[in-house]
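Continuing from the previous page...

OK, I double-checked the sequence for Pilus assembly protein against my notes and this is the correct one:
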Amino acid sequence: MKNHHAQAGSVIVEFALVLTPLLILAFGITEFGRAMYQYNAIAKSVRDSARHLSQYAPGDDLRKNEARALVVCGKLACGPDDKPLVPGLTASHVSISDRLSSADYNQQSTGRGTLNLVRVEVNGFDFTSMAPAFVPDVTFAPIHVTMMQVL
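Thanks. Re-ran it with the corrected sequence; updated structure tokens here:
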């Protein structure tokens, strides 16, 4: 009988020793998955936004605002009740360059003419961890897409 009680105590100690690495592993995998999901959602919305802008002439502020809305909320216009695709993503994270706003970068000579490029970029987005004790907050590297504008 005494041996059984001693074994029960050792099981609790072993469980306590194994629990910490298991929790770190579980929360780490979960948060890494959330970070990948948010990064991919932003990358897709940036690509959609650049594709949208590539269909219009450069310098159109209405189209630039639509492109920002596509990045932030996934629609051509964000209303006050619309939530961002990714928590914490705002229009201030989005920058747009086209032939008129950045002439040095966006006019590329091909020998047969000039290509007009449009670039959409999300810069400075912070991934906020739900378990900061296990996974720290991370600032994503700039996510950008450049496409040729059809004129």
